[in-house]
Design goal:
2 domains; 16 helices; alpha/beta; Urease, subunit C, domain 1
């Protein structure tokens, strides 16, 4: 018999590729961090001698979810400023809080809290952009979490860098070079927005991104106000500035992209740009509803992201899937638009494509990395089961995730994080809350 590290035996298996397939009576063999085979249970029992036999009756085995856009450390700003417009939220509360509090220590603690939340909810890979990205990368590495760590770039000063040139240099020296060949970490660049970047800074970014062959992700057309201000200040829409800089290409991940005209949609599709759709964050900040059915029909790869916990306020990809499907139907005025299968694809293969990881993760296929999750359907809200994919998107709570593997490492086992001390994380979060709340008048006023 052939040895494997683990043989996972669920009731149902949803591989995502091929689309629409649900397997019953199958097992998945994992060896050396990769998927060795997906095969009928009888054949698996005859072929493999596993080190660990993991039987999950009434469970669904599916690819780990991919959170294509977040700011992990902002978990420590969760609930700091709610129920206000984007510009007030950002300029009056979040940016002042960041100027005062963002440090290596905050980023470390906030990122670890985010990783715990994401793993517990079935996310096994996240795309991050925040200050102190080397700390984000180290936290993900220490907790064995897969991450695409994007170095922030802006013309404004922060506690991490003072100019676009310094952001780029530090990102290269502290993030890209040390992690270029790392099995868990992929690097990228993340200019904050067009309003935070001069044309000269975009030019320098493009040269370096091309030289290093790195993804570029940017908040783009998130709000109508962003577009109005760009037209007022530069005479161009943000997209036009980005296109003029030569950054509209296959390496671009456009985050939010709520307000695109038809010409911009066609240009993005022709250039092979991916889009990170963050429906709950956009709703909470009243930024509008991205017409994702239209984007997908045009040929744009759409991924899902939570955005940061300061504007969501959860890092819950099951909730994002459901919201994306429901909003997609409303935006298209078509109940057949953005099906459950579409939402699942956006949260798995769509995210993997957006982060340039689709050859390694996003589906249960032989040879891919074993980034997997099990979901327990033995709950009132997921019975009876007529359609497994529909149930995953429209009825499942993230708390039903029982197991998660990252590269074959069993990170969540029967609902218990195996590598993370949750009590200690919560205690640190509470300490940060006391420090931050004491300095924010808005928090004091609502208490």
């Amino acid at each position: 018999m052939q040895h494997c590290d683990a043989l996972i035996v669920p009731r149902w298996c949803v591989p995502v590729v091929p689309a629409g397939v649900v397997l019953e009576g199958h097992a998945v063999a994992v060896s050396e961090g990769r998927i060795d085979a997906i095969l009928p249970l009888e054949q698996a029992q005859a072929r493999y001698q596993p080190s660990a036999l993991i039987e999950r009756p009434d469970h669904v085995l599916m690819p780990g979810l991919v959170n294509a856009h977040t700011h992990a450390a902002m978990t420590l700003f969760r609930g700091l400023a709610d129920d206000m417009h984007l510009e007030a939220w950002l300029r009056q509360h979040i940016w002042p809080a960041e100027r005062r509090w963002v440090s290596a220590e905050l980023v470390r603690d906030g990122t670890e809290l985010a990783i715990a939340e994401m793993l517990r909810g079935g996310t096994t890979c996240f795309g991050d952009q925040y200050f102190f990205p080397e700390i984000v990368a180290q936290a993900a590495t220490d907790l064995s979490m897969r991450a695409v760590v994007a170095t922030p770039v802006a013309d404004f000063k922060s506690s991490w860098a003072g100019s676009a040139a310094e952001y780029l240099q530090k990102g290269t020296d502290l993030v890209h070079d040390p992690y270029a060949e790392h099995p868990l970490i992929t690097t990228a660049f993340a200019p904050h927005s067009t309003f935070a970047m001069a044309d000269e800074s975009f030019a320098a970014l493009r040269v370096l991104a091309d030289q290093l062959d790195l993804r570029v992700q940017i908040h783009l057309h998130e709000s109508a106000a962003e577009i109005r201000e760009s037209l007022r200040d530069t005479g161009k829409r943000p997209f036009a500035r980005l296109d003029h800089a030569g950054l509209v290409n296959r390496s671009l991940l456009a985050v939010h992209a709520v307000h695109l005209d038809d010409e911009e949609v066609d240009r993005l599709a022709a250039a092979g740009v991916s889009m990170a759709h963050c429906p709950k964050s956009n709703l909470k900040l009243a930024n509008g509803v991205a017409p994702v059915a239209k984007y997908r029909s045009a040929g744009i790869n759409v991924a899902l992201g939570t955005d940061g916990a300061a504007s969501n306020n959860m890092l819950d990809m099951f909730s994002e899937m459901q919201t994306a499907a429901l909003l997609g139907k409303t935006a298209a005025d078509d109940a057949t638009a953005v099906s459950a299968q579409d939402a699942l694809d956006m949260a798995t293969m769509g995210g993997a494509r957006a982060l340039r990881l689709d050859r390694s993760i996003g589906s249960i296929e032989q040879g891919k990395l074993a980034d997997l999750v099990c979901v327990d359907f033995d709950h009132f809200n997921t019975r009876p089961v007529y359609d497994v994919v529909s149930q995953l998107v429209y009825a499942t709570a993230s708390t039903q995730v029982s197991d998660a593997w990252v590269g074959g490492r069993h990170q969540l086992e029967n609902g218990r994080l195996t590598q993370i001390d949750g009590h200690e994380l919560v205690a640190r979060a509470d300490e940060w809350r006391d420090r931050i709340a004491a300095s924010d008048k808005h928090v004091q006023e609502v208490q």
